[in-house]
Design goal:
Elements (H helix, E strand, L loop, with lengths): L1 H37 L8 E5 L6 E9 L12 E10 L6 E8 L2 E6 L3 E2 L4 E4 L8 H4 L4 E9 L8 E8 L3 E10 L1 H10 L6 H7 L4
Parallel strand pairs: 2-10, 7-8
Antiparallel strand pairs: 1-2, 2-3, 3-7, 3-8, 4-5, 4-6, 4-9, 5-8, 9-10
């Protein structure tokens, strides 16, 4: 009897130890997944890039084009708006947006494009948002109008180079947003008009 009890106790202890080991392994895997998810960045409407040193340069956030597309392409000669926010990472030195260039068109900047130390430059006004001056006290606001020389389309991206006086240049692929106007057109379109729906779904905004 003592031998049988000893064997039974040994088997039970072994199974318990195995169960504990499996639980530890599973817990470790789960923790790894949570940690991995925690560091993922959320999707944004546009793209981000930094001109110059990441610690003292200018961070460009949510860069996108806004263009009203009614056919397969937005045709050359049409106007598009370039929208983004520029944040000066330097607490001591100001900077200035000198130019924006692209192979798809010429870009005209209107307004004071200086970015104060630790300040913000708002380019364009996103749909459905309050005035940038109301939303961010002390931020400079400018407009960037693109006159297209090449056709562009929703669902594609186009290279733009941003040049600053102090931080230098940065090039990034910029997507297109259909904008609030096109979304309203889609909602008001008669039933059976699928062309507008297809175009709107191809956009990023």
């Amino acid at each position: 009897m003592n031998r049988q009890r000893s064997r039974a106790f040994a088997v039970t202890s072994g199974l318990s130890a195995c169960g504990l080991a499996v639980a530890v392994v599973l817990t470790g895997c789960s923790a790894g997944q949570v940690s991995q998810t925690a560091i993922q960045e959320p999707a944004v409407n546009g793209t981000n890039v930094v001109a110059g040193d990441p610690m003292t340069g200018v961070a460009l956030r949510n860069i996108h084009l806004r263009a009203h597309q009614t056919s397969d392409y937005v045709q050359p000669g049409s106007k598009a708006e370039l929208l983004f926010v520029a944040v000066n990472e330097s607490p001591a030195d100001s900077d200035r947006l000198v130019s924006i260039t692209s192979d798809v068109g010429s870009v005209a900047i209107t307004g004071n494009a200086t970015v104060r130390p630790a300040g913000t430059l708002v380019v364009g006004t996103p749909d459905g948002q309050p005035s940038p001056l109301d939303a961010s006290e002390g931020a400079n606001t400018v407009e960037a109008a693109v006159t297209l020389t090449e056709p562009i389309s929703n669902g594609l991206t186009y290279d733009f180079t941003f040049t600053f006086e102090r931080s230098g240049s940065a090039t990034v692929a910029v997507p297109i947003s259909a904008g609030e106007t096109q979304r309203r057109d889609k909602e008001g379109a008669p039933e059976g008009d699928t062309a507008g729906a297809v175009e709107a779904e191809g956009g990023h905004g």
